[in-house]
Structure formats: C-alpha cells, structure tokens
Please model this.
Amino acid sequence: MVMGYVKVATKIGNPADRSKSIRLDLLADTGAIYTAIPASLLEKISIEPKSTRRFKLANGKVEQYPTGEAYVEVAGEGVTSVVAFLPEGSTPILGVTTLELLGLQVDPTTGELKPLELLLL
Model:
C-alpha cells in the first residue's frame, strides 16, 4: 500500500443497463476528485462521453479528458457518478467524489475503507 491509496474491488456498470458491467480493482485516490477509467473499458459497457473537463495530473500537467456517468458499486453499495475517460494504460482510479457518494472514506491509519460520518447540519 502507498500512503493515501488502497485497492478496492469495484463493479463499474452502465447506469441505463446495469447488466453491462465490468469488475475492476481501482486505486482509491484521496487526491483525485473523480473516478477515472481507461476509455476502452467504459466503451466496452456502452458508456459514452457527455462532456470534456480539464484535469491537473500528478506530474503538474493539465489535460482534457472526456467525462460521462457510470454506476459504481463497492461492497454492495452503488451510486451513479461522474467518470473520466482515461488514455490506454492508465491506472483506474476511484475518486473522492464517488467515495463520498458511497458514504465511504479512506482510513489513513489502516489504509482501508470505512464508513464516512454523514452530516446533516
């Protein structure tokens, strides 16, 4: 485990037809806003880009990637979330927005996912 990262068994599905899905181990990245998957894997389950957004990468570069929506399921809990279409060979990432929608967070002391304290203040 790298500090701040943990691998998570994840099901990625087409939100309109969840029978079209794939299972991947994603890197839970507390520094990434959105979940990001190589484009060919998203295309395989008929997820199409809806827009394009700019992303600052770990190396400091700014790149534009297409984005769309996917059904993301972790440990039996699922949500629809924005996903970025990554270039081939990129590491699939589970971003913090999707983690929060799932009610989960990375525990930095154990490197595992734990329930997020949900606030309604």
The chain has one domain: 5-115. Residues 32 and 95 are 5 Å apart (CA to CA).
